[in-house]
Amino acid sequence: MIPKRFPCIALLAVLLFPVARAGDFQPLFNDDLSNADFPEGIWSRDEEGVITASEDRIIWSKADYQNFILRLEFKNGEGTNSGVFVHASNTEAWVTDSVEIQIADDFADQWANKDRSWQCGAFFGRQGAHVRAVKKPGEWNQMVIVCSGPMVTVHLNGKRVNTFDLRDFTSAQTNPDGSNVPKWLSKPPASLPRKGRIGFQGKHGGAPIYLRNIEVMPL
To answer: Fewer CB atoms inside 10 Å of the end CB: C or N, the chain?
Structure first.
């Protein structure tokens, strides 16, 4: 049965039916976070299953994932600037060696006035979301990320907000649309491995992020 909190899963189930039958969604992290990598004392899980961080440190899966569907719920605080990292082949150099799907409070001035590639649902620094769909701080959002070969699709609150082909991003300086790449993203995504850990950014810039119901299904 498809949970009502993930309406876009129904569409994905139709599109991916041949592969979706092969497995089931499983929690990415154990209840006690014993299968996660993070600095001691930074990330915690409450009795309702919500995980959050006290500092700007990433929580990583211990396992690597290649082709998969990731679904989760997140709630922003005022000014949240967080992200989901996939294909992280080097967690020590995650800035350059992963793909980041942006989570942000687009209602905050500091992000509302930024380039679209800094806003919620973006391939951070590379391609903005096609549709704005994030809810206001304090409200839960549903996100689904599909990684299949070089293709990545992002669904937010039942809408497909972004689709990109990693093979198109062959430059470390310029994106396919001609926009400039942030200087710290010094490796072209086309050159990165399409397999790695999944991670979530913590309390970046002093603004919290809340996560729950994080589940993954390998394809």
So the answer is: N
Indicate the SS3 state at residue 166: helix
Task: List the domain range (segments joined by +) for residue 101.
Answer: 8-218
Please give the pLDDT value at position 205.
Answer: 86
**36 forms bridges with which residues in the sheet?**
61
User: What's 184's domain CATH number?
Assistant: 2.60.120.560
Cα distances (Å, whole numbers) of residue 151 to 172, 178, 197, 209: 19, 20, 17, 26
- Which segments in the chain show pLDDT lower than 70? 1-23
How do residues 131-141 score in pLDDT, each as one tens digit? Answer: 999 999 999 99
CB 182 within 8 A of CB 117: no
Cα torsion angle, 183, 195, 211, 202, sign: negative
Q: Kindly report the CA angle at 212 between 209 and 214, in degrees rounded to 5?
A: 115
Is residue 182 classed as helix, strand or coil in its secondary structure?
coil
Tokens at 164, concatenated: 């990109």
pTM above 0.85, yes or no: yes
Distance, in Å, from the CA atom of 194 to the CA atom of 178, rounded to the nearest integer, reads: 24
Query: Total domain count for the chain?
Result: 1
Residue 72 lies in a domain: yes
Query: pLDDT tens, 189-202?
Result: 999 999 999 999 99
